[in-house]
Amino acid sequence: MRDANCGGCSQSCRWKYDLYDMPFGKERKSLQGEIPEEFSMSAVDMSMIDHISDMIENGVDSLKIEGRMESIHYVSTVTNCYKAAVDAYLESPEKFEAIKQDLVDEMWKVAQRELATGFYYGTPSENEQLFGARRKIPEYKFVAEVVSYDDAAQTATIRQRNVINEGDQVEFYGPGFRHFETYIEDLHDAKGNKIDRAPNPMELLTIKVPQPVQAGDMVRALKEGLINLYKEDGTSVTVRA
């Protein structure tokens, strides 16, 4: 047995299934090949980041944010956003409204699927379900975390989590909604050798960083690659992710 409440969820709602036409009294017929891709039974993810005001005004004292089986990139980004949203609204509703779109945009950097409000405002419709290909592409990938920063040399030691290339556009971010964008420059391995590409996870690297960063800050890069997106009429288009 796998206990989903203890982190053992097999995520069967994210699997792909064959879809069958099963008319009464007749043999079932597979619809494979007649739909863009295999069928899934998956709800979009729930997000209330832009409805924090409703939650607070209705007496919500505590929020449970999904974190089990998620990356530190996901957890740090989401908790950072909700913390900023709650603090801003408690200071003034106007301040929350001023930063709300920035928070929503930040959430999309780690969202794996479309977002909706679940059952908060009514019964979800078919628009809150995913029956085929994902309709939203994650924009960023987690590539490293900061180990230390040398102010004099303006270099950061980072622990790699994904492939890093010289010239990659990256974003550093940390607690308090603190972040800035730059490019990977002067990339060296742990032995001090100049390299153009670092493909091995957990390797210690040094890079030039134009402004101070802190140990524990995260580094994410814009995603690249090709993906097929399916339209409502069943046709697909290839886009760069």
Automatic annotation (TrEMBL):
Q: Which domain of life is it from?
A: Bacteria
Q: Which InterPro entries match?
A: Peptidase_U32, Peptidase_U32_C, RNA/ubiquinone_mod_enzymes
The molecular function terms of the Gene Ontology recorded here are: peptidase activity
Please provide an example of a Pfam family that matches this protein in its UniProt record: Peptidase_U32_C
Query: Which part of the chain is the Peptidase family U32 C-terminal domain?
Result: 139-220
Q: Which Gene3D superfamilies match?
A: Translation factors
What biological-process GO terms show up in the record? proteolysis
Q: Which UniProt keywords apply?
A: Hydrolase, Protease
Q: Which residues, if any, are the signal sequence?
A: none
PANTHER family to which the protein is assigned, alphabetical: PEPTIDASE U32 FAMILY (PTHR30217), TRNA HYDROXYLATION PROTEIN P (PTHR30217:SF6)
Q: Which family does it belong to?
A: Belongs to the peptidase U32 family.
| Record-given protein name | Peptidase, U32 family
The organism encoding this protein is Streptococcus pneumoniae (strain Hungary19A-6)
